[in-house]
Design a protein that fits this description.
- The protein is α+β, with helices and mostly antiparallel strands.
- The protein has one domain: Aspartate Aminotransferase, domain 1.
- Helices cover 45% and strands 24% of the residues.
- It has a 6-stranded antiparallel β-sheet.
- α2 crosses α5 and α3 packs across α5.
- The longest helix has 23 residues.
Length: 126
C-alpha cells in the first residue's frame, strides 16, 4: 500500500489510491483535522497528506497495517501518556487499522499543534 505509481497532486488523489475501507479512515482523519484547525491549508508534502498553518501542522499516511500520524515531536511529547497504547516514534504514532481512530485525541493534538504554530509565528513577527 505504501508505493505509489505517481506522486499525488492533492489529498483527494492520495486518498483515491486506496481501497474503500482505508479511504473512509483517511477521510475521517482529514475531516477531524479540518474541524480542529479550520484555517489550516491542505497540501502534499513528503508524498503524504499535510496540513499547514504558519508552517507544517500535521501529516498523515496510510500503510499496510496502520494509519501514520505525524504531529512532530512536540505533539507526541505533549500527549505521550495517552498515545502510549500505540506504537510511537519521536514525531509519529501508528493507529492500527483494526481499531477505531482516536478522533477526540487527534482533535486535541491538532489544536495543540495549531496553538503552538500560531504562537511561534506571533513571536517571530515581533
Amino acid at each position: 500500500m505504501e508505493t505509489k505509481k505517481t506522486a499525488p497532486k492533492n489529498i483527494d488523489e492520495y486518498i483515491a489510491d486506496f481501497p474503500q475501507d482505508i479511504q473512509e479512515r483517511l477521510q475521517q482523519m482529514r475531516a477531524t483535522i479540518h474541524q480542529a484547525a479550520p484555517d489550516a491549508e491542505e497540501a502534499i508534502s513528503y508524498q503524504m497528506p499535510t496540513f499547514r498553518l504558519k508552517g507544517n501542522l500535521v501529516h498523515f499516511a496510510a500503510f499496510k497495517n496502520h494509519i501514520g500520524f505525524y504531529p512532530v515531536p512536540t505533539g507526541i511529547e505533549a500527549f505521550k501518556k495517552e498515545l502510549s497504547v500505540y506504537k510511537m516514534a519521536k514525531g509519529s504514532v501508528q493507529f492500527p487499522l483494526d481499531e477505531p481512530l482516536p478522533l477526540k485525541l487527534i482533535t486535541r493534538i491538532v489544536k495543540f499543534r495549531a496553538k503552538e504554530n500560531l504562537a511561534k509565528a506571533k513571536a517571530k513577527a515581533k
